[in-house]
Amino acid sequence: MPHCGHQILVLRQCGVCGKNLSPKAKFCPACGAPAGQTQAPKICRECEYKNRPEAVYCNQCGGPVNFEAGDPLLSCSFCKTSLYMVPKGPLRYTLPVKDGLAKQRKAKLLYLPYWRFKGLSYKVLDQRQFKSSLLDTTVSAFTGIDTVSSLGIRPQVATLNLAVNGNHLIPAQRNAKEALRYCRKEIAAIREKYGPF
């Protein structure tokens, strides 16, 4: 079993219209064409201390698949099949350290895990109107250490590296449900102070 635990699964597509199909679909819901056989998931090779697996092969055509670190959605360059990396738990990312920065400043790297919440919040006003806002925030995963509630960075514009080796990662003390509860409380406080949206 590899250290990363990722699996590469084929997002099946209809051969007629190109719509993505569910793993158990026998017919395309859009055009009714037969879906074909289900592909079995493949597990990537051991990827110690690297930001990506050494070699991953497409389930559809068997060709090697190259993917960018930090992007769990990829496409086979040979047959254009959509692939998705499936982890055992939540995907973990790290911010890249500039080459030589730690050596120049004689700094030590510090690991502070944060949960990232990304989504859309909306409120229905009537049958034809609604208000929406984007949510992209970070919440500290530590409960006993006095850390700021947000990283103060914009993760949506940062280049993130997919952390596939869990040996150097400290498990979060605050689980996702607690972090989401905290995030909702913060959003409610902001709405109470500044009004809805």
Can you summarize this structure?
It is built from 2 helices and 8 strands; from the N terminus they run βββββαβββα. It has helices spanning 101-104, 176-194, and strands spanning 7-11, 42-43, 73-75, 82-86, 93-94, 114-124, 130-140, 161-162.
Distance between the termini: 47 Å
Strand order of the largest sheet: 2-1-4-3
| Percentage of residues assigned to helices | 10-25%
Number of helices: 2
Backbone CA Rg: 21 Å
**Oligomer class:** single chain
Would you report the number of β strands? Answer: 8
- Give average pLDDT, whole number: 66
Note the run of SSEs as H and E: EEEEEHEEEH
Proportion of beta-strand residues: 15-25%
Q: Which secondary structure elements does this structure contain, and how are they paired or packed?
A:
Blueprint: E1 7-11, E2 42-43, E3 73-75, E4 82-86, E5 93-94, H1 101-104, E6 114-124, E7 130-140, E8 161-162, H2 176-194
Antiparallel strand pairs: 1-2, 1-4, 3-4, 5-8, 6-7
